[in-house]
Automatic annotation (TrEMBL):
It comes from Nonomuraea rubra. Keywords: Flavoprotein, FMN, Monooxygenase, Oxidoreductase. Pfam families: Bac_luciferase. Residues 11-219 form the Luciferase-like domain. This is Putative F420-dependent oxidoreductase. InterPro entries: Lucif-like_OxRdtase_Rv2161c (IPR019921), Luciferase-like_dom (IPR011251), Luciferase-like_sf (IPR036661), SsuD_RutA_monooxygenase (IPR050172). Signal peptide: none annotated. One of its GO terms (molecular function) is alkanesulfonate monooxygenase activity. GO terms for biological process: alkanesulfonate catabolic process. The keyword Oxidoreductase applies.
């Protein structure tokens, strides 16, 4: 198991120089991967989770660097560190377009891409992308199948309920791309497993995480497990803390629980995307 960091792709530090600085510092420190994510927009109130639950989004969400362009930029500025996204909302992109972009990134990076695919959750983003919310679920599964068809031998063709690709030559083909599925709800976890994807999921508490991983494994999931921590690594110990947060020493005490679940990678998505000193503190975890 190795460790990683979310890049400053939003907020006051979001500029090309800072993104490169963090990625190169992480590579020098021996971290396993750097990560970005996709956010199309920050809607005016209310912010909708699906069709019912209203949740706030930070003001920084109004401006987020595109994940694939960011990773392409970093592919040219790094050499060995894995480059990841958790997650790209697959349904907002036509399968043939996203398949070619991911394959191109895979080739340009020398097979260093770990791409998490999600089906989206915000009603307003579906509206802006011109995609019906009802396409979640079965539409996501078919999207992944259509992309995999693009990556197969030419001539490629695909005919499904939502997507059609006429018989064609489509390239480039990926050689080392690792695909993950972003999931937390039981049905989504089972779908990710059925599609043969690895799993990327956020940890809120240990029991919830263990139940999610168990659901994924029981459904046949056997791919890489990436755990995202929506928090930071503090300089000093914390009296009250969520899983895998606190000081480097406290987090080092937590890591065996993540390893016991079969985690391949743990990443920290810093609060407010404040990354000063964070690479060094993450690297320090491995010294305990």
């Amino acid at each position: 198991m190795d460790l990683g960091i979310g890049l400053p792709v939003t907020g006051p530090q979001a500029d090309p120089e800072e993104i490169v600085r963090v990625a190169q510092a992480a590579e020098r420190a021996g971290l396993g991967a750097v990560w970005t994510y996709e956010r199309l927009l920050r809607p005016a109130e209310p912010w909708m989770l699906g069709l019912e639950q209203v949740i706030p989004l930070p003001e920084e969400s109004a401006s987020v660097y595109d994940p694939l362009e960011t990773l392409a930029y970093l592919a040219a500025r790094t050499s060995t560190i894995r480059l990841g996204a958790t997650v790209v909302d697959a349904l907002f992109h036509p399968p043939v377009v996203l398949a070619r972009r991911l394959a191109t990134l895979d080739r340009l990076s020398g097979g260093r891409m770990w791409i998490g695919l999600g089906q989206g959750w915000m009603k307003q983003e579906f509206e802006a992308a011109g995609v019906p919310v009802k396409r979640r679920g079965a539409g996501f599964a078919e999207h992944v199948q259509a992309m995999r068809a693009c990556w197969g031998p030419d001539p490629v063709s695909f005919s499904g309920r939502f997507y059609t690709i006429p018989e064609s030559g489509i390239g480039p083909k990926p050689t080392g791309l690792t695909l993950l599925g972003g999931a937390a709800a039981p049905a989504a976890l089972e779908r990710v497993a059925a599609l043969g994807l690895g799993l990327t999921t956020v940890v809120f508490d240990w029991d919830q995480l263990a139940q999610g991983v168990e659901t994924y494994r029981k459904a046949g999931g056997s791919g890489p497990l990436v755990i995202q921590v929506n928090g930071t690594v503090s300089e000093r110990p914390l009296d009250e803390r969520a899983p895998l947060t606190g000081s480097p020493e406290q987090i080092a005490e937590d890591l065996p629980r993540a390893e016991a679940l079969g985690a391949d990678h743990v990443l920290w998505q810093p609060i407010g995307f404040e990354t000063d000193g964070l690479v060094e503190r993450i690297a320090e975890i491995n010294t305990y």
